[in-house]
Each structure stands twice: as C-alpha cells, then as structure tokens.
Design brief:
heterotrimer, A alpha/beta, B mainly alpha, C alpha/beta, A: alpha/beta, Rossmann fold, 2 domains, 5 strands, C: alpha/beta, 12 helices, 14 strands, about 35% helix, elongated
Chain lengths: ~270, ~325, ~325
C-alpha cells in the first residue's frame, strides 16, 4: 500500500540524513584539527621536492618555442596583444611544413638581466626550457633605461657615464642569463633580440643612447658569437629612423608595426 | 510524554511530500552538468594550447600572475591575494603536483569551494525558509499546536529534520558533482595529493607546515567545514521562518542577506568590522586551501566563534518566540 | 439537562490584553459532559480569541482555563489530550492525502493506531475519498476531515468554531444530528456561532459574548422564553384590527421605517400588515379577540428576534436591574 512505502521512505531518508551528518561532523572535526595543528590528521605525509623527467622531445620534426625575458617578449605596447612572439609563431607556421608550438611565454614585465638570471634557477622554468628547441629572448632594456623611464627623462640619470656604468653591470648578468639557458638546454637554438635606442628622436639623448645601446649589443654579440647555436637579431637599425612609426604611445615599447618588423627579422634568420 | 521520534517522522514526511526537496535535487541535476561542460571546455582549450602538458599551463599561469603584479593599476588587495596564490602555485609546480588534475574529484573539490557562499545556502534555505512559515501561512499551525505536545518539542523536531536535510544536501551536492563530472573527467583521483597547511603572514607564505593530504581526505574535511557553515545558515533561516509568516518573504530576507554578504566579501578589507558578520565567515574552506581571509586577523577559531554565536542566537530567538508567541491568525 | 454532570471545561475570569487593548474583558463559563454548549456572538466580539485560548494557541493575560482538571496553559500536554478542536477553518496539509493528514495527527497523540483512524473516517463518511489529496476536497469534505481529526484522540471536549460554515442545508442538518449523537454519548461539545437560530436549533446551553464580555450564560429555552417577540398581523380591515390590538394593551407597534425587523423578512408582506412586539403567550388571546370582533385574520407571523435585538434586550435588562 501507498502508505507503507511512504513510511519506509522516511526511515531511509532519516537514516541517510543521520549518516550524512555523522560523516560531515567527522570531516569537520578533522578539518578543524588539521588547520589548527597541521598534519595531525591520519593519512597525511610531508611533501618532497620532485622534478619531472623530461622526455627527449626536442626533435627536428617539430618547432617547440619557449620565450623568456622582459616586456618586449611579453608584447607590451602592442594593441593586438600579440607582440613579436605570437607573430613569429604565426609566420613560421605559414612558411614551415613542420608544426610550430609556443610552449610558454615566460617573459615578465620590467625584468632586468640580473632578475632573469635569478629566475633561470627555477626548476619549473628549466623544465620548459628543456622541452624547447628554440628559445627567444629579449633582455637589457630595463637594465639601461628603467630608471630613466621612471624619472621622466630627467637629465641627471641619462648622462652618458651612468648609463655606460649600468651597461657594464648589466652585461655581466647577461652572460649569466645565456649560461643559465644553456645549462638547462645545451642544444636549443637561442635567439637573442638586440636592443634599440628608444630615444633617437630626442636631440640630447640620441647620441648618448646610441652609444650605450651599441655598447650593450657589442658585448652581447661577443658572447653569442662563442656559441654556434646562438644568434642575435639586431633591431637597432630598424628603429633608428622609424621611431615615430614603430614606437607605442609610452615612447619606450614598440607598437604593433614595430613588433611586426622585429618578428619578420627573426623569421628571416631562423626559417 | 510523547517521544520525539513520531514528530520527526511527521516533519520528514512533510518535507518530502511538499516536493521542495525534489526541486533542490532537480536544481543540482540541471546545474552541475552546466558547470561540468564549462569546465570541460576550459580543460580542452588548455590541453590544445599547452601541448598536453599541465606544467606548461601552470608555468604560464604563474608568469601571467607575475606580470599583473608588476602593474601599478592592479589594486594592492588583489596583489596580496595573487602573491599568495603565486607562491602556492609555484609550490605545486616545484613538487610536480598538478593542482587541477582533471578528474571528478578535482571538479567536486572546486565546485564545493565555490558553492559554499551562495549555492549550498540557497538549497538549505529552500527547506529552512518554509519549514515553520508554511505552517503559519496555510493555517495548519492551529492543527499542529492544539495537540497534546509541548511547543518546544514540535520546534525541536523541525530543527532536527532541518539538520538532517542540511547534511543530506551537502553530501548530495558533493556526490552528484562527482558522479556527473566523472562521466566527463573520469572517476579517479581519490588518492591524488593535495597540499594544505599554508601559513599566511601578510603576503608571505610559510611552507614549513605544508603537508600532503589525499584528495578524499581533503574533500571530507572540506565538506565538514561547508556543513558547519550550512548549519549556521540553516539556524538563521529557521529563525526567520519562525519570525516571518510568508515563505516567500523569509526566502527573500535571507537571500538578500547572503547576496549582500557576497558583495561585502570583496569590500570587507576596507571595513574591518564586517568580519563580525556571519556572511563574511562562511568560507571556512579558505583556511584549508590557504586562501587569504577577506579581513586581516581572521582565523579559523575566530570564524567558528562568529558563526557559532550567530547560529546559537538564531536558534535561541526561534525557540523563545515560538514557545511564547500567541497564534493570532 | 443534568446539571450534576461533570464539568469538562471550566473558564474562570479570563482576560486578554493584546498590545494595550483589552480584547477579552471577562469571560467565565463551564461546560459539562454530555451537553452542547453554544458560544454566541457577532463577528469581532472575541469569540475566536476565546476559542484560541481554550486550546492554548493564545495565553490568557489573567484567569484560568481548565480541561478535565488540567490547566490548559500550564499543562497543555495533559489538558489537550482531552480536547479535539477545529479553530476557524479546518486547514489541513493540502499536499497530503486525508489519510496521511489523520496519520500525521495520530502520531502526535499516544496510543492512537490505524484502527482508530479507520473508525473516525467511517464516522464522518469519508471512506471512499480518504486516500485522495486534500487539495481535491470540497469545503464540506474538508469540514468532515476536520471533524475526523478532532475526534481522533477520543476527546472529552469537542470544540467547533462556526462548524456550519460552507455546508449546504442538508449538510447542516446532518451535522446537527451528528453533534447530538456525540453529546448523547457523553461528550461535551462547544459550538460557536454568530447565528442565534443555529444555536437555538443545536444547543442546550448558551453563552452570549459581546465586546469581549460574556453577557449571559443560560439554557437556550430560558433565554428565549419570557422575551417579547415580533409578530406580524395580516388582518382586514386594518383600522379595526389595530384598534383592538391597541385596546388590549399587550402589544407595542412598529413602523417599517423603524427597521427593527430584517428587511428580508418583510419582503412579500403586504402594506397593511401590522408590525408589533408582544409576549408569545398572548397571541392566541389576541387572535380570539380579533375574530370575535369580526376582523378577518389572514395571517399571524412570529419573527425570531435577531441577535442584535437579543443583545439590546439583555443589556437593557441589565440597565433596569
């Protein structure tokens, strides 16, 4: 009879409710205990650091790209948000038969060479680099011009001697950066995008800027030249006369066209 | 002296026959697949983008957070929250554990974390708001209270039944989330390691007390904490149900409070007194996951205390009013 | 009536304040086993408030209510064991069947089993619809179900609030007979109503309440006998009849415009009819006088006084005394 099934249902529900409440109360007790005195609950263990093994993926039949560095690699200033990295990937995809994959863009805005060499010690960054067979990077702009930007082109910080001193310091770190990448991946093609002078249209800064950037690029070239699997893509000349066309409104980062120009150069040199 | 059991039987039968509980079930059965589908789409996207490697995806997430930290436009509050998240994600990556391992258990865990402030309270409210007020709005209270049974016993039986259904709702939400999402993500992952015990001080995370719990244990603790919050919500809903004659009015009252709470939650940092509100303290699971509390200085014992005071006060008012009140209409 | 029968319900000087207003000023009466006790008063006189106090829905501010010797407000668990009641409308759980409703209430009283439920369903004649949902019931069926739940606990006192509401004339007649059998079996039945005629037809004793005060408690017969009644005379020639009635000194005349008699009653009464108030005992005598004088009496119609009229008389009486 209908009535009997109702009375059976209620007792099942009541039993389920009672059990649920008991289970949840136990869970609540465990939860409180574990938060107040960590690892006091059964089935817990202490963690150990583990590095995942990387399979040998860097084969020639695939382009696996990892990118690292500063805001240029991030693509800051590009209205489309693509930066040179995505543009390179797209263009390579068109001109190449092999599949092109962007593994990771590990660039962080405002990064300097010393911070990057520090960052390269991280296992997790190394993991990505190990998987790649092409590494694209930009670094150095912030080493030279970070303070200049923040001080609104104040003449003090932009005198030639302080800038050259900064370049000398930065280059030391740049060397560590290259070594850091190589440590993780001895075989990958490393593409370093050289610096340009964002101040060529400022009369008092043009010459000083050019000197400092050229000094940096020279030093970088000297390091890169020692490794047959490293290339440097110059951008200095690209921006020398086209600063109005290629720079974004912050007067420091390239705009979409500027990134396009950089990307085309990279593709030309590695296709 | 009649015992409580028959009264509990009565109340259970009424809740079941009123079909409200089935509506709750239906809501779960409709909503969970929607979330599962959305989650599946995200997972698919990520897998395509990151060459099937969660480590790459996680690294990208970390880098993205690092980039927002550099921006001056991001409010300090968010930065604090993200700095902590960054350190935790990095910790997962360093220990080669995927915090979002795609399986039914992970989905359930995430779903429950998001359900605690609004969704589960809403389901509990569906039962609680009605349990006393409907007797008054339909006039059956006159039949109910003219029996040779003391009023506090009648109310106590209703409270016990409400507790019962609160437990059922929490368990069923987790169970259905697991069963439904498992169809897509697989039913594994019960022993997958979860890190807990991140000690927060300001924006720094102290990893000394971090330890591993298996997923099932984490979920048990998580559901337990959610249950406690739900019981407090049930107690307050119960009180409103006693005070307000109309079921709709009692739902609206508590829903408005909860929604106001979830809005306040994001602004609480600039209004420290808000930490004494029960709505701000509902996310007990934050203490388990190591997510920073909305107001500086909140801790698990503090939140438990605040919730307990609200809950007990709610029950006290409910019983006091119900036993003394004249039934005038 | 057997006035020696046990007192089942005793209400002693009950007062109730709601807010600052004294809603019930002074209510005192007893109800004995085996009698049908009417509780008569217009709407808003405090009837329902009093009934709610009898079943512990409202606590009196002062005074004492006892059922079978147990205080309703202090010891409801014992006192209400002896009471079955319908307060206002018999509102049951619509989403349950009739049977489930009875089962629900049976569980709240110790030692009431399925067989008792069968019994009361049999008594109120709902057997063939008892397993249908209450929301499908008509008003009459709900009344029956309400009575069934009131009888469930084999009460000594049955409290019915306006029980004829929503019933058709046949249903009302059945209900009256039914209540009489219950009383004959020894149950005390407390019936409230705002209709004097209903009380007169149903009850043995009556309490009249107005503005929160009980004005009189008496046997129904007692209450109505010895009081003037309205009598409508239709006689020709009118002038002569009026003179004779006037000469007898036993009647008081009224005009239609005085509105002492309900308009509905006067529909179809010819213009020449004479409206009077007189002692019922003198009607026969007056009739004889009219006939002797050669007046053709076409009709003599007695009209029950309305409740308002009764109140007026009772309060006037008090003033005189």
């Amino acid at each position: 009879m209908n009535r009997k099934s109702t009375s059976r249902l209620w007792s099942w529900i009541a039993l389920f409710g009672l059990l649920s409440t008991l289970v949840l109360a136990v869970g609540f007790g465990f939860g409180v205990a574990d938060i107040l005195s960590p690892a006091s609950v059964p089935f817990t263990e202490m963690p150990s650091v583990q590095t995942p093994p990387v399979k040998e993926t860097a084969q020639a039949d695939e382009w696996l790209i990892a990118t690292i560095g500063d805001s240029l690699t991030r693509g800051t200033g590009d209205g489309t948000g693509e930066g040179y990295v995505r543009r390179v990937v797209k263009m390579l995809d068109k001109v190449q038969d092999k599949p092109v994959t962007l593994l990771n863009n590990m660039a962080v805005n405002g990064m300097r060479a010393d911070q990057l060499s520090e960052r390269l010690n991280q296992e997790s960054i190394g993991y990505v680099l190990k998987k790649a067979n092409i590494v694209l990077l930009t670094i150095g702009g912030n080493d030279l011009f970070q303070s200049a930007r923040s001080e609104q082109f104040g003449d003090q910080s932009l005198n030639q001697d302080t800038l050259l001193a900064k370049a000398d310091q930065g280059v030391v770190h740049l060397k560590k950066v290259f070594a850091g990448i190589r440590k993780w991946n001895p075989d990958a093609l490393i593409v370093y995008v050289g610096l340009y002078n964002p101040f060529t249209d400022l009369e008092e800064m043009r010459e000083i800027g050019n000197n400092v950037v050229q000094k940096w690029n020279d030093a970088a070239f000297q390091m890169i030249n020692k490794d047959k699997n490293m290339i440097m893509v110059p951008t200095f000349d690209l921006f020398q006369q086209n600063i109005g066309m290629y720079l974004s409104s912050d007067h420091f980062h390239p705009n979409g066209d500027g990134y396009q120009a950089i990307a085309e150069r990279i593709v030309q040199s590695i296709r | 002296m009649s015992s409580l059991l028959p009264l509990i039987q009565n109340e259970t039968i009424k809740v079941l026959k009123k079909k409200r509980f089935y509506v709750v079930l239906l809501i779960l059965i409709v909503l969970i697949p929607v979330f599962t589908y959305a989650q599946m789409k995200i997972a698919q996207n990520n897998r395509e983008k990151f060459n099937q490697d969660w480590r790459l995806e996680l690294q990208q997430r970390i880098t993205d957070i690092q980039n927002t930290l550099g921006s001056d436009r991001v409010p300090e509050e968010w930065k604090k929250y993200r700095r902590i998240m960054l350190q935790q994600l990095q910790y997962y990556l360093d220990h080669d554990v995927n915090p979002d391992e795609p399986n039914g258990v992970t989905f359930t865990r995430t779903f429950m974390d998001n359900a605690v402030t609004l969704f589960i309270p809403l389901l509990v409210m569906a039962i609680a708001s009605d349990i006393v007020s409907s007797e008054r709005s339909t006039g059956t209270i006159k039949m109910l209270l003219t029996r040779p049974v003391r009023r506090w016993k009648v109310l106590l039986s209703k409270w016990i039944v409400l507790m019962m259904f609160t437990g059922i709702i929490v368990i069923l939400t987790a169970l259905l989330a697991y069963l439904i999402s498992g169809m897509v993500f697989g039913y594994g992952g019960w022993t997958f390691p979860i890190f807990t015990g991140f000690a927060l001080s300001g924006t720094e995370v102290n990893f000394d007390t971090v330890h591993i719990v298996p997923s099932w244990m984490y979920m048990l603790m998580q559901c337990g904490l959610i249950w406690f919050s739900s019981v407090v919500v049930a107690a307050l809903g119960f009180m409103i149900s006693v005070l307000v004659r109309s079921t709709a009015a009692s739902i609206v009252t508590l829903m408005a409070t909860l929604i106001a709470g979830s809005i306040l939650y994001n602004m609480a940092s600039s209004w420290p007194t808000a930490k004494y509100l029960f709505m701000i303290n509902l996310k007990l699971t934050d203490y388990l996951a190591g997510t920073p509390a909305p107001v500086e200085g909140m801790s698990l014992p503090f939140s438990l205390g605040v919730l307990a005071v609200w809950g007990i006060a709610g029950l006290f008012v409910a019983f006091r009013v119900f036993t003394k009140q004249d039934i005038l209409n | 009536m057997n006035s020696a029968a046990a007192i089942v319900l005793s209400v002693q000087q009950v007062k109730k304040m709601i807010g600052r207003k004294l809603i019930i000023k002074n209510v005192t009466f007893d109800v004995r086993a085996g009698e049908i006790f009417g509780f008569l008063g217009p709407n808003g006189s405090g009837k329902t408030t009093t009934i709610r106090m009898l079943v512990d829905l409202i606590k009196p501010t002062e005074g004492r209510i006892q059922v079978c010797g147990f205080d309703v407000n202090r010891d409801p668990e014992k006192a209400l064991r002896y009471v079955g009641s319908i307060v206002e409308n018999p509102e049951m759980y619509n989403f349950l069947t009739g049977w489930e409703n009875l089962d629900h209430f049976a569980r709240m009283v110790p030692e009431i089993g399925d067989d008792r439920i069968h019994e009361v369903v049999e008594i109120v004649g709902l057997s063939n619809r008892i397993h249908d949902k209450v929301k499908t019931y008509s008003l009459g069926m709900r009344q029956r179900l309400g009575i069934a739940q009131a009888l469930l606990g084999r009460p000594n006192l049955l409290i019915l609030d306006e029980p004829t509401n929503g019933l058709d004339p046949l249903g009302i007649k059945e209900l009256r007979a039914f209540i009489r059998t219950l009383a004959d079996s020894g149950m005390a039945v407390f019936v409230s109503s705002h209709l004097l005629s209903e009380i007169q037809l149903m009850c043995d004793r009556v309490a009249i309440i107005s503005r929160g005060e009980v004005l009189a408690v008496d046997d129904v017969e007692q209450l109505l006998t010895g009081r003037n009644q309205f009598v409508i005379w239709q006689a020709k020639p009118e002038k002569k009849a009026r003179d004779i009635l006037s000469a007898s000194g036993a009647v008081t005349f009224f005009n239609r415009e005085d509105e002492v008699i309900d308009e509905a009653v006067l529909v179809g009464v010819p213009d020449y009819a004479i409206l009077t108030e007189t002692q019922p005992e003198s009607i026969a005598e007056l009739n004889r006088k009219l006939m002797e004088a050669g007046v053709e009496v076409e009709g003599i119609q007695r009209i029950m006084p309305t409740l308002e009229q009764l109140f007026l008389e009772i309060t006037e009486g008090e003033r005189i005394e």
